[in-house]
Amino acid sequence: VVADEAVDIGPTSTLSAVLAASKNVESYPDVDKVELTAEDLKMLKITENGTGRKKGRVAAPNPHDDVKRFAALVMGDLCRDDVVCELAKCLRDADQDLALAAANSIACIADAGGPLPYEAVQALIAAFQHGERDLRMQALRGLANDRGGKGPGLLADGLKDENGFVRIEALRGYANRCCAGQEVVDMLNDEHGDVRLAAARAIAKTAAPDALSILSKFAFSFDAVHRRQMAGLMKDLDADGACKLMIEIINNDEDSRQ
């Protein structure tokens, strides 16, 4: 091979095709001018250098935060008013994990002991009304366990909460108190199946005279998707009564068609 010999590029060569195409590139017409909205301009301003959030070092977590959280959890075993009041102060802490640990411990103390101090009840009410979902759930649990009588009114408010988990926690509070009025029966029509089941369990826990009838009707609602759970609840509530009731339904032609 002679080094000075020119390399011949064939007409079917890929290189020749690329070179030929690059000479015949068409120029596209200008696209329409883009009009930026006020929101677009706002976002651009945030991303400009020197504006918006300033760059800096991320604050390192406090190494003592874990100690505080652990202490808040351990204090749940101490059924003393001074301990509860100290835990209540943590409900307003910026550390969400610490606030949750404190609320959990207060709920445990309320379940094991007597009525909660006034300061703790007020702190739980504030946490339920203004806290995040998890904190609202723990605060509601503490108020439900409190024997001081503050729970029932707030449990009714919990049934109206937009979050299904909070509504379930409120229904658990009714079950723990063995009280389930019409407001709990109405929750059998909730859009979420887990909420409906929590309401059914609360009704079964009360062992009210009409509980068996309510549960039997609910067993056939929503295309009978809860029939197995209702069978278990009815058996535990009154096995003989549940059998008689089911036999009556089977023998009733109208109920059978439904």
Overall body shape = flat
Please give the count of helices.
14
The low-confidence parts are none
Sheet with most strands: none
What does this structure look like?
With 258 residues, the chain is an all-alpha fold. Helix content is 64%, strand content 0%. The chain is built from 14 helices and no strands. It has helices at 14-23, 38-47, 65-74, 81-90, 96-112, 118-130, 133-145, 151-159, 164-177, 182-186, 193-206, 211-219, 227-251, 253-257. The protein is flat.
At a glance:
64% of the residues lie in helices and 0% in strands. The chain is mostly helical.
Please render the helix and strand layout as text:
Blueprint: H1 14-23, H2 38-47, H3 65-74, H4 81-90, H5 96-112, H6 118-130, H7 133-145, H8 151-159, H9 164-177, H10 182-186, H11 193-206, H12 211-219, H13 227-251, H14 253-257
Helix pairs in contact: 3-5, 4-5, 4-6, 5-7, 6-7, 7-8, 7-9, 8-9, 9-11, 11-12, 11-13, 12-13
